[in-house]
């Protein structure tokens, strides 16, 4: 007799855990609901923006450039975005942004150092920063008297920006005696400048040579009488009053 085949019994498939699925859906809906409520609440909004460190740039200018406004979404922009916007201002050297939840954003800026001053066409005093930017000096702050005054410079003169960079390289103690810097270009030295010092010296040099020659300038000022100092390819010093005035007298002239 042929053997009868016993049918293979089907394995019992475990029933899906529908209760777990329902719990997951309810949890997801709850999270979405909380997110909606949060972003509609005042806790998700910017409640205060504090800006510190600015001297010549106004707080309103920085606030506008940052793109931030009180009442807007706290997470609507990143700190990196704010830093990138503020660093487009030529006066700003560094920026840090600290977002403190809930709602407070602290912005600290550092401007380029002041290297000189100049008088504007309207008579206002302007500060020249190391970046070459010229900004009006607020009446509420003092003026560093050890910084030189730039006169007769055109606003768009590229040498003024280069001069600002060179002055920024020089330690303050080496520029305290320089009172005035005037452009004095020549065919041989298109970046030539004339400087006057508080100790009554007249100095001829160039923008490109200034940072290398300034130590020689101070050596002469400390050891010699007032005179004319030339610091170009060669360095020379001639006193305004010779050691022996009689040597410069014309022949036959009476003393």
Automatic annotation (TrEMBL):
Keywords: Cell cycle, Cell division, Cell membrane, Membrane, Transmembrane, Transmembrane helix. InterPro entries: DivIB, FtsQ_DivIB, POTRA, POTRA_FtsQ_type. Its main location: membrane. PROSITE patterns: POTRA. The keyword Transmembrane helix applies. Pfam families: POTRA_1. The keyword Disulfide bond does not apply. It is found in: Cell membrane; Membrane. It is a single-pass type II membrane protein. It comes from the Bacteria. Residues 44-112 form the POTRA domain. Cell division protein that may be involved in stabilizing or promoting the assembly of the division complex. Belongs to the FtsQ/DivIB family. DivIB subfamily. This is Cell division protein DivIB. It comes from Paenibacillus taichungensis. The lineage of its organism: Bacteria, Bacillati, Bacillota, Bacilli, Bacillales.
